[in-house]
């Protein structure tokens, strides 16, 4: 539990982040300042399978892939202290397995392999007060069952595919379970597959061997991956190593904030570690954790 001093620091710190966790009971929003966990609650009740936050904008949209539709809302409207006050709009995609953003374009996919992009109609680029606005879904193509979307890449049962204006182009590998394009062009894409963790350079190059399920990468060089419940991180020397966590549970999702790493376990424990201070210093790399008590975690994203 936070101490009185910690609560005071939390209250005085304006650099908070909202972390969204996709679970079987809905999208949970968690407020975090540095490595201190504040309020949290269910922002939208649904059977959420994936969640994504638009990057590169001051007013991002959060999108949720659920068993009945894709939902979206302005991330700024979600207050973890009163999360259900936010309104998530249904988009009409239907049951979805994955969701992501390619720039400002929302992409979604389903378990049958359909990948589609959300296109504004009548010049509407955002709804009242922000958000996704009025639009329609246009199918890009069909591949194997899609597990994850990030940028212009899709991770599917039959490998990684690139989303283009003309359709879907195979990009290699097999049994892709997660993919990340990185926060900027300097970050090489990473893919988690059933046989290893791969980095895209001159073709796909193996970073680690084994079954990997989740991956995250940040513009400042942080890299994390999950293999059969174990969390791995790439150090400053470029070497990967297992990262111990303070609970005997399996990690299922990982994401990066501006200066923080977040992980969520299969038992619903939310883990936070401050990777550096605002001055760029690296603090004590210990984890704090909060039991959310929610199972069937499908993904995590940061606004």
TrEMBL record:
Pfam families: Beta-prop_HVO_0234. InterPro entries: Beta-prop_HVO_0234. Residues 3-303 form the HVO-0234-like beta-propeller domain. It comes from the Archaea. This is HVO-0234-like beta-propeller domain-containing protein. It comes from Halopelagius longus. The lineage of its organism: Archaea, Methanobacteriati, Methanobacteriota, Stenosarchaea group, Halobacteria.
